[in-house]
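Bench notes, afternoon.
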Amino acid sequence: MSAVEANVGQSCHTSERTSHHSDKTKQNLQSRLNRIEGQVRGVKGMIEKDAYCDEVLNQIASIQSALNSVGKILLEGHMKSCVIERIQEGDHAVIDEILTTMNKLMK
């Protein structure tokens, strides 16, 4: 069972919604985000040192890819837990919510 599947069944439909990621998933996301943060600092340093534009652009592409990976992990967990749960509870407004979110991710 994946870390995402381990979250299924935990309540996410409350008056104040929160996520419910496993500790393993949180650690994975935090590690990825820490690396991304370091990459962004690296790009800032490259610009300060007048690095060749192509090198900076390649680093930016790498950062975007890493952010997309974080987004995919979060989206998968959200769809396998909260979205399914809310649909089962009859809350079909979650479909419009997830479509809006996916449109933002795909820009």
